[in-house]
Design goal:
Elements lengths: L7 H16 L9 H10 L11 E5 L5 H8 L4 E6 L2 H14 L4 E5 L12 E7 L8 H10 L1 E12 L5 H14 L3 H11 L1 H10 L5 H10 L8 H10 L2 E7 L4 H9 L3 H4 L7 H18 L13 H11 L8 E8 L2
Parallel strand pairs: 1-2, 1-4, 2-3, 4-5
Antiparallel strand pairs: 5-7, 6-7
Amino acid sequence: MAANELSPEIQKIQETVVGMYSENPWPLNRRTDEEMGWRLKCLGITPEDYEGKRVFDMGCGTGEYALWYAKNGAASVTGIDLSDGSLSVARERKEEMQADHVDFRKMDILNCDLPDNHFDFSYSVGVLHHTGDPLRGFRHLARVTRPGGVVIVSLYSEYSRRILRTKQQTCKLLGGDDIDKRVEWGEKLFGGTLRKLDKRYHGLNTKQIGYDIFGFPHESLHTGQEVLRWFDENNLEFKGAFAPLRIRDYFYAFSLPEYQTFRSTFSGFPVMRLVADGMDSVSKRLYGEQQTVRQFPRPGPLSLWLSQLIWIPFGLRFNCFTMAAVKRG
């Protein structure tokens, strides 16, 4: 098998995943502004990391994040994906925004042939875990980023995905390989789960939620420890995490004013909102408004374990975790 050739198993995964998201692009609508401010601050990212910079979106889907960076100061944005349906939505949005500095290309993220050390700011959000070989894709993400540039990856969590995984496996058992039947079973058995997520997305993606949650053909689950190993193997230095991977960093996160905008994403999750509001109140009383952190200390083994355990009861809302790094020279 050639070095860049995919195994038959991974090719099959790729075909089914791309096929599903071509027919059911996700998301068709999301209020990106409400989540990005707090998330990026918790990752140690400030506007100077992407303003006037070359930005790369690996697995751009419908283009929501690519266009957010384009709107918020990126000099150029390149997004790649294999899903024709998703790319069609992304290109329509680009035209609506008249964002001529955005380029959406059909390209395999596992065989990405973009040049080495080219981009200043590279990310892959919620995509690599659907590929069958996430580390291979991540190596390309790191490779195309220049020394001193930022790399961000977002993956399904082995901890917070556990409860939802049981529901997904039930639908897979009942629906078999038929994606539409899996979604039908999800709607019948776990309507409450879909209603919560529908509120989280403010009713903007009602039909697509079922396919993204119950219809997906393949996913892998990951941990913070694993991603730190990926960073080490690819000459990357930890910068930050969302949700935080050190207990003390939660107090910093909830002291930030950006939490108030992010708070609207807890629609449908009243208990989580109550806990988060409590943390917000305590953090502001104890610490006030803190100076912006550009790079957080690398979390130790105990912090990693405790932080990820905290995610388990909130897994439906936070089933992905995000980690950022800087590429060493």
